[in-house]
What we know:
It is built from four helices and four strands. By secondary structure, the chain is α+β, with helices and mostly antiparallel strands. The chain is globular and about 45 Å long.
Amino acid sequence: MSGKFCVILTTFGSRIEADSFAGNVVSxxxxxxxxxxxxxxxxxxxxxxxxxxxxxxxxxxTSETRVExxxxxxxxxxxxxLPEVTVLKSPEAESTLNGWCGKHERxxxxxxxxxxxxx
Length: 119
C-alpha cells in the first residue's frame, strides 16, 4: 500500500444514509472497510443554537493516497450542510493492517472479508 493507514470519521443523521455511504465507498474501493456505530446522541452548536440529535458515526479505513478522493465523495453525497470530516493518520499501524487496507482498495469486485488473512 502506498501511503499510511488512515481513518476518516464522519456522522450521519440516519442509518440509511450511513449505510449508503459505506456501500458506495467500499464498492468503489475508496475504503477497505467502513464501521457504523449508533444510534448515538450528539449535542452541538449550530447557527447560534444548541442542538441535540440522533446520529450514526462512520469510521472509514483507507490509505493516505485515497483520502482526498474519499473525502470528496463523502462531501458530494452527504446531506449535511457542513459534514464532519476528521482524518486520523496512523504511521504506526501494523504492516499487516496497511497491507490489508491497500490490497482491498485495489482488488476488483471480490469480497474483502473472504480474502483477509493474518488480520
